[in-house]
């Protein structure tokens, strides 16, 4: 895994705007039977997209891909753990995924996307952000960031002082 060297903080407004841009791309590809949000990161984008696409049937795939002990909340220390499916009733109503829309906040290495795609091979997989390694696994996304960038979502951050880039590079 590439250690993130850069950070990409995302504000609520920016996330809302970019998720709406994703909705504009998806509306042309529907209608969809429902949305499957990949928890937890997919929940907020899924809510925004459900509102724009007028979808009321929203289900979840409850997953965890980064091990707790390694994810200290700082760029560079996140390490993938074992992929865990945290829900036992997967596939009950989704079948092979035909007509369903899977939403996640981002695809990074593509491990989560690969896992969920194997569960729902015919579903349309969409994310707001994509990194190059995971990009081939996503059908629709909006913004690409480099593999060595860590995206900070608004629910994970709060405003604080940060050193100028030039000073960061000196240290
Ligand atoms: O392409 P990958 O390398 O699999 O990484 C992408 C996944 O990692 C993050 O979820 P995470 O499992 O950390 O849990 P969270 O959604 O609860 O933050 C993110 O929300 C994606 O689901
Ligand atoms: O908040 C996050 N930002 C990221 O860039 C990332 N990659 C995997 N999982 C992630 N979570
Ligand atoms: Mg996630």
Automatic annotation (TrEMBL):
Residue numbers binding guanine: 108, 151
Cofactor(s) it depends on: Mg(2+)
Enzyme Commission number(s) of this protein: 2.4.2.22
Residues annotated to bind xanthine: 108, 151
GO molecular function terms listed in the Swiss-Prot or TrEMBL record: xanthine phosphoribosyltransferase activity
Record InterPro entries: PRTase-like, PRTase_dom, Xanthine_Guanine_PRibTrfase
Pfam family, one: Pribosyltran
Binding site for Mg(2+): 105
Domain Phosphoribosyltransferase: 12-160
Subcellular location field: Cell membrane
Membrane topology: Peripheral membrane protein
Pathway: Purine metabolism; GMP biosynthesis via salvage pathway; GMP from guanine: step 1/1; Purine metabolism; XMP biosynthesis via salvage pathway; XMP from xanthine: step 1/1
Reaction(s) catalysed by this chain's protein: IMP + diphosphate = hypoxanthine + 5-phospho-alpha-D-ribose 1-diphosphate; XMP + diphosphate = xanthine + 5-phospho-alpha-D-ribose 1-diphosphate; GMP + diphosphate = guanine + 5-phospho-alpha-D-ribose 1-diphosphate
Protein residues bound to 5-phospho-alpha-D-ribose 1-diphosphate: 40-41, 104-112
Binding site for GMP: 108-112, 150-151
Function comment: Purine salvage pathway enzyme that catalyzes the transfer of the ribosyl-5-phosphate group from 5-phospho-alpha-D-ribose 1-diphosphate (PRPP) to the N9 position of the 6-oxopurines guanine and xanthine to form the corresponding ribonucleotides GMP (guanosine 5'-monophosphate) and XMP (xanthosine 5'-monophosphate), with the release of PPi. To a lesser extent, also acts on hypoxanthine.
NCBIfam families referenced in this protein's UniProt entry, alphabetically: PRK09177.1
Family in the record: Belongs to the purine/pyrimidine phosphoribosyltransferase family. XGPT subfamily.
Subunit comment: Homotetramer.
Record HAMAP family: XGPRT (MF_01903)
UniProt name for this protein: Xanthine-guanine phosphoribosyltransferase
Primary gene name: gpt
């Amino acid at each position: 895994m590439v250690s993130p060297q850069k950070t990409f903080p995302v504000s609520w407004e920016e996330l809302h705007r970019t998720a709406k841009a994703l909705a504009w791309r998806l509306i042309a590809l529907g209608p969809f039977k429902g949305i499957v949000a990949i928890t937890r990161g997919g929940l907020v984008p899924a809510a925004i997209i459900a509102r724009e696409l007028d979808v009321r049937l929203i289900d979840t795939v409850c997953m965890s891909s980064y091990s707790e002990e390694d994810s200290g909340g700082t760029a560079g220390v996140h390490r993938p753990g074992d992929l865990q499916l945290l829900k036992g009733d997967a596939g009950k109503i989704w079948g092979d995924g035909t007509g369903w829309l899977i939403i996640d906040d981002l695809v990074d290495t593509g491990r989560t996307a690969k896992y969920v795609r194997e569960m729902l091979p015919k579903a349309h997989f969409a994310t707001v952000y994509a990194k190059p390694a995971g990009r081939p696994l996503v059908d629709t996304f909006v913004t690409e960031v480099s593999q060595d960038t860590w995206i900070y979502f608004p629910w994970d951050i709060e405003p604080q002082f940060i050193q100028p880039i030039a000073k960061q590079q000196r240290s």
